[in-house]
Amino acid sequence: MSSADVQREFDVVIFGATGFTGQFVVEEIARVVQKEHGIKWAIAGRNKSKLETVLKQASEVVGNDVTGTSIIIADVADEESLLSMCRLTRMILNCVGPYRFFGEPVVKACVEAGSHHLDISGEPQFIETMQLKYHDAAQKAGCYIISTCGFDSIPADLGVIFTRDVFKGDLNSIEAYLSINTGPEGGSWNYGTYQTAIHSVPHTRDELLFGKKLVSYEVPPPAHKATKRPQLFRGERVGSDWCVHFQGADRSVVQRTQRFNYEQLKERPVQFNPFVRISSTFWLVIIALMTTIFSLLANFSFGRSLLEKYPKIFTLGYFSHEGPTKKQIEGSSFSWHFVGEGYETKIADPDQQHDDKPSKMIETRVCGPEPGYVTTPICLVAAAMTVLKEAEKMPLDGGVLTPGGAFRKTSLRDRLTEAGMKFEKL
Ligand SMILES: NC(=O)c1ccc[n+]([C@@H]2O[C@H](COP(=O)([O-])OP(=O)(O)OC[C@H]3O[C@@H](n4cnc5c(N)ncnc54)[C@H](OP(=O)(O)O)[C@@H]3O)[C@@H](O)[C@H]2O)c1
């Protein structure tokens, strides 16, 4: 039995519960524990009265009085407080970001205490550094450290797995096209994600290098390389005006999953290229202009301070300290459209290549409600329940894994479907 599976006072603690996203995660867990009986949970952060307010609000929203839920005080700057928190629980759901600044001490404390750690980061450099530094120790401690358990990158990672599951034959490559849909009130994200994005820009180059180092070519190189797309191209294939390369963590996460499942399960790795759909030339121009200004400023410390000071001005109101309104959240949704290519036949040995060109296509879709504050809590809490209930179906008895590596054999997809996401073959 791993240390994370021994009896502890709590099964799960939500750290960073007072954050914009943390509040929604608390509400999601308050909902889910009504069905998943016997889950002992608590919330944690550095301010007791703010944490009490979180519980009051969650009780009102969910219609279930959770105000008696335990509160733990812990601060990232206080190592002892982190360790004490981690020793009380089998699992931490970490909502304290940017992870580049606050993530590592929490991972370290979890590994030391032998507690599982799930987070919603989308920062490849943080994620891959944790893999390099803590994978062996986490495996020894018998705990799972799983990042990107939110909109980054569960829909994309599990979407690729779903597509290969429903493709009869060998899948060679997938192009994935993301659309974010908003209602009449428009869409918006909270400042926490904006701040994370600002501080990711100066490290983009390191991230590329890191990506190469971890996801190097230790999978058999494909006989037929996927079509290389330019930075900007017409999206006729998926009925959209324009498409650009998706800059988030999804590509590196999916590649790590593909490599891991090749090593562990002898599955043939699938090439993966994600893009974002842009609905019109007007929006393309606006987005290009804003992104250029944002990237230029984010490369300098003065520019970063300016961006942090005026989020609404630099993003035309898309990011703010108030975050999205209830109406904006209710009116938003996302959809990943996967277009796969492969072979009719299957060759059991993944190291053996097909001679002919891919000749069979498949289209699938993963969609769900608003990505940041509805889908992310759904994904994080569903992933948490899966670790608690189905650890015996997970690989290696611990370690730093991607969602697709950790949950390949579990029922996570069913849990997500039950909570409102959809995986479908088109
Ligand atoms: N994967 C996704 O799709 C997705 C979606 C949403 C968010 N996120 C990520 O989640 C993270 C949080 O975003 P957010 O918008 O919720 O941010 P936020 O509202 O600013 O919340 C930050 C949280 O961190 C806590 N915190 C800050 N410093 C701390 C410290 N020293 N010790 C303990 N707690 C500390 C804050 O506590 P106080 O209340 O005490 O200040 C607060 O609870 C970001 O990295 C964001 O990118 C990812």
From TrEMBL:
From which domain of life does this come? Eukaryota
Gene3D superfamilies, per database record: NAD(P)-binding Rossmann-like Domain (3.40.50.720)
In this record, what's one Pfam family?
A: Sacchrp_dh_NADP
Q: Which UniProt keywords apply?
A: Membrane, Transmembrane, Transmembrane helix
Membrane-spanning parts? 282-302
Give all residue intervals belonging to the Saccharopine dehydrogenase NADP binding domain: 12-146
User: Which protein family is it in?
Assistant: Belongs to the saccharopine dehydrogenase family.
Q: Under what name is this protein listed?
A: Saccharopine dehydrogenase-like oxidoreductase isoform X2
